[in-house]
Amino acid sequence: MISKQFDFVNTGYSISTDIKRIIGFIESELSSNSSADELFFKAKIIVTELLTNSLKHSGISNTVIVINITDYLLTISKTDFGTPLNLITKYHSTNIKIPITNDILHTLYAVIDNEKHVTFFCDENNMADILAIDNIVEHFGLLIITKSADRFTYHFNEHTKENIFEVAIKF
Amino acid sequence: MIKIVKDTTDHLLIEIEVSEANLGNSDLFKSQVVQLLDRHKKTVIIDFSKVEYIDSSFLGALVAILKHAMTIKQDIILVSLKKDVHDLLKLIRLDKVFKIYPSYNEAI
């Protein structure tokens, strides 16, 4: 397995240099892959959204991105020490499916697998009423990652206080 | 952030002047386009030819602008999207709610 860690300091400035650095590494390792273009597109939007999420939450000063590559799987994980997702703090039942957002295009769900672990997935909705555009959500970060990934999970480590988002893409 | 390229009787053509459409400029973009809609009361055609990549914040701003345009009975049209930008809109199905054309000439 190939593995590399990237440290990202949230200074409030553009993250494009960090994105290019991370995607440059993935491209150098997987350039010969038969579905390289699709893979790089997905990796770029996932890394962009993970880092944008850190920028949005100003309480998060440092973020670590780790890239793991095996023969068939690209894994992108983000670790930070920000406030845990309220899904973890709000719901205490396990194996429950919670709709996070719902509009004419998608329903985005979180499944709380156990007390500190969440898996995201989404359904595409039937656009019965195109005039219901007013109903469309304006927050797309989690949805973009969920739709780009084969698996997207969140885990809160209560001992270390780490938030760990893990995104896997098969190739 | 944006430049008015053409002002006709029924539409405005504006160009986004940055290559990275993201969290750092999405609020400014939204307020500038909303001001144009309110002032001109016309369809706004947005030229994306300079935009290399777009993030969820900017997509959120675009949807907010479309909602505003609809409340004043106007429209938003997107033209000249790079492949990655168009693919991202398709991924989250926004290609079903925005009118998108390969070029300005095909939009009018």
Number of domains of chain B: 1
Which architecture of the largest domain in chain A does the CATH hierarchy give at level 2?
2-Layer Sandwich
The overall average pLDDT of chain A, rounded, is 89
Label the overall shape of chain B: globular
Q: Return the CATH class of chain B.
A: Alpha Beta
Outline the secondary-structure elements.
The complex is a heterodimer of chains A (171) and B (108).
Chain A: E1 2-9, H1 16-30, H2 36-56, E2 62-69, E3 73-80, H3 86-90, E4 96-102, E5 106-114, E6 117-124, H4 141-148, E7 151-157, E8 162-170
Antiparallel strand pairs in A: 1-2, 2-3, 3-8, 4-5, 5-6, 6-7, 7-8
Chain B: E1 2-7, E2 11-16, E3 20-21, H1 26-40, E4 43-47, E5 53-54, H2 56-71, E6 76-79, H3 83-91, E7 99-101, H4 104-107
Parallel strand pairs in B: 2-4, 3-5, 4-6, 6-7
Antiparallel strand pairs in B: 1-2
Protein architecture, described:
The complex is a heterodimer of chains A (171) and B (108). Chain A folds into 2 domains: 2-80, Histidine kinase-like ATPase, C-terminal domain (Heat Shock Protein 90, 2-Layer Sandwich); 86-160, no CATH class. An 8-stranded antiparallel sheet of chain A has the order 1-2-3-8-7-6-5-4, with helices on one face. Helices cover 29% and strands 37% of the residues of chain A. Chain A is an alpha+beta fold and 171 residues long. Chain A has helices at residues 16-30, 36-56, 86-90, 141-148; strands at 2-9, 62-69, 73-80, 96-102, 106-114, 117-124, 151-157, 162-170. Chain B has 108 residues and is of the alpha/beta class. Chain B has a single domain (2-103), classed as Transcription Regulator spoIIAA. Chain B has helices at residues 26-40, 56-71, 83-91, 104-107, and strands spanning 2-7, 11-16, 20-21, 43-47, 53-54, 76-79, 99-101. In chain B, the strands form 2 sheets. In chain B, strands 1-2-4-6-7 form a 5-stranded mixed sheet. In chain B, strand 1 (2-7) and strand 2 form a beta hairpin. In chain B, helix 1 (26-40) runs parallel beside helix 2 (56-71). The longest helix of chain B is centred in the middle third of the chain and has 16 residues, at 56-71. The mean pLDDT of chain B is 97. The chains are: A alpha+beta (171), B alpha/beta (108). Chain A binds chain B through residues 14-16, 41, 44-45, 48-49, 52, 55-56, 105-106, 124, 127, 130, 133-134, 136-141, 143-144, 147-148, and chain B through 20, 22-24, 53, 55-57, 59-61, 63-64, 66-67, 70, 84, 87-88, 91-94, 96-97.
